[in-house]
């Protein structure tokens, strides 16, 4: 385990053997565990870099990088949200964390839903931010774009972030292609599985998100103990995801008080 100190934070990082992967993770702060699961094509920092300093004073953050992303190794199988969920669940077992809150963004939000479905005994609360559970949850143009996805179209901030941390920068193409194939072949999560989520769940989207308000509302109605927040802005703007940052972006623009209030409430 490596300890790293920055101007504002100290964190520990390491790798864990998880279902054939060397899974990279970082641990910040002390307190009740909150797992952070990044979006597609991303790293810990590109998704959560702006909000980790805001969450770490009150929580033990376990930030992960999923298969083929960032510093985590790859394996022969294609990417799936179910496999990612199983990987995160086993990582928590390896870290002797029996139960945690889960916060996932975009693809990570869909993974968070799968953790709640497949490993409910390990989940306390779920924050599913800009999560997708049905193909109808995004405009049809999204699927047209994904079917023609090229590395050249991947945001430069995400490409640069991968190259800065990955042991094999050539893996960028593989990660991109696997992420694209996962979306092209995406299948709806059955309503019965969404309804089976017992953990208190906070659904968040932007009002100008890739995810439609109608889809978020549908999930909210399906998940028995859920809340829905629709925040002004685009996909991930509410947490300062790296591709959404503007010169005048302020920490006060982020939804951290909303998230902390949700996490602090007693279950039920």
TrEMBL record:
Alphabetized InterPro entries for the sequence: AB_hydrolase_1, AB_hydrolase_fold
SUPFAM superfamilies with a match to the protein in the record: alpha/beta-Hydrolases
Start and end residues of each AB hydrolase-1 domain: 32-172
Annotated protein name in UniProt: Alpha/beta hydrolase
Keywords carried by this UniProt record: Hydrolase
Any one GO molecular function term: serine hydrolase activity
Gene3D superfamilies per record: alpha/beta hydrolase (3.40.50.1820)
């Amino acid at each position: 385990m490596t300890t790293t100190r920055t101007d504002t934070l100290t964190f520990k990082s390491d790798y864990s053997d998880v279902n054939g992967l060397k899974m990279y993770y970082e641990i910040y702060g002390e307190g009740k565990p909150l797992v952070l699961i990044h979006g597609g094509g991303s790293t810990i920092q590109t998704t959560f870099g702006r909000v980790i300093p805001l969450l770490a004073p009150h929580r033990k953050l376990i930030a992960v990088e999923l298969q083929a992303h960032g510093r985590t190794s790859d394996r022969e199988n294609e990417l799936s949200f179910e496999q990612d969920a199983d990987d995160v669940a086993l990582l928590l077992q390896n870290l002797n964390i029996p139960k945690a809150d889960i916060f996932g963004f975009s693809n990570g939000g869909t993974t968070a839903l799968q953790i709640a479905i497949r490993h409910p005994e390990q989940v306390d609360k779920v924050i599913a931010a800009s999560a997708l559970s049905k193909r109808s949850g995004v405009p049809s143009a999204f699927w047209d774009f994904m079917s023609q996805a090229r590395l050249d179209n991947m945001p430069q901030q995400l490409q640069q972030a991968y190259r800065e941390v990955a042991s094999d920068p050539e893996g960028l193409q593989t990660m991109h292609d696997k992420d694209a194939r996962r979306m092209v072949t995406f299948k709806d999560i059955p309503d019965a599985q969404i309804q089976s989520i017992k953990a208190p769940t906070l659904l968040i989207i932007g009002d100008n998100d890739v995810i439609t308000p109608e889809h978020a509302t549908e999930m909210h109605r399906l998940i028995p103990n859920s809340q829905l927040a629709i925040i002004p802005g685009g996909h991930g703007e509410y947490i300062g995801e790296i591709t959404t940052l503007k010169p005048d972006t302020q920490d006060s623009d982020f939804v951290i008080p909303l998230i902390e209030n949700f996490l602090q409430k007693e279950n039920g």
